[in-house]
Design goal:
Shape: globular
Structural class: mainly alpha
Order of helices and strands: HHHHH
Number of helices: 5
Strand content: under 5%
Distance between the termini: 42 Å
Helix content: 40-55%
Largest sheet: none
Length: 111
Amino acid sequence: MTIEGLAPTAIVPFIEWWLNNDWKGAPIRRTGDKTELNPAWQNAYNNVPARLVDLNKWVNAKTNNIAPGNPEMKGNDALDWITDPSMLNHFYSSWSGGMGTFVQRTARYWR
């Protein structure tokens, strides 16, 4: 039995994020030695919505003190973590369920 099976449903996404595994065992975000210095949007997989990636790019560009306006460099660590596209996508998908997935997929076609 895993810890996700014992935890209340509302906090399971937090546990999955901490373990970096979704309900089927797939990784939520890229990890490794080189990913620590990258902004969170560079560690996101291709299935993460572009609007979440753009939000993280914007935050890093605005909070970067070394090269202001450059989204390629990590800005404020806390804000980069709070706007992590992989995390936001995972929480949205987990808490909104099938209806949220339907809305998210439909929104892709309206662009």
